[in-house]
Amino acid sequence: MASVGPSAASTQPALPSGPAVFKTIPYAFILPEILCGTWVWILVAATSVSLPLLQGWVMYVSLTSCLISLLLLLSYLLGFHGNSENWKVLDSLYHGATAILYMSAAVLQANATINSEFNPNGPLNYQLNSAASFFAFLTTFLYILHAFSIYYQ
Question: Domain locations in the chain?
Fold first, then answer.
């Protein structure tokens, strides 16, 4: 008879807690996601928003994602997960959904960048919008990497 004990539970990799979060893929992507998302938020806020509907969505997605990712990072750092497999599912679903939302925000920000190219407000808004577009696509890529790398652990 096969025994179901500590040896069966040890085959699953443990979820990181504390500083090990920053050394373990995919959890190490959380901090860069937060930092790049914060740059998106700051850069869009620094422009004179000419398309409030488009850039409002970008601001909403970047700010909400930053806050939820920060809460998720704190949860991992403090060990709230209790090494439960449900946290892996939650993490993967959150990062997958956020990647989709961020892709829509990045496309809208790119559209706002194109529209600001010939704006009379000067090249500064175009440069800020270009940088925001770059960081939006970079953040999207980080969320996609995080969502898919959960499966390869």
Answer: 28-152
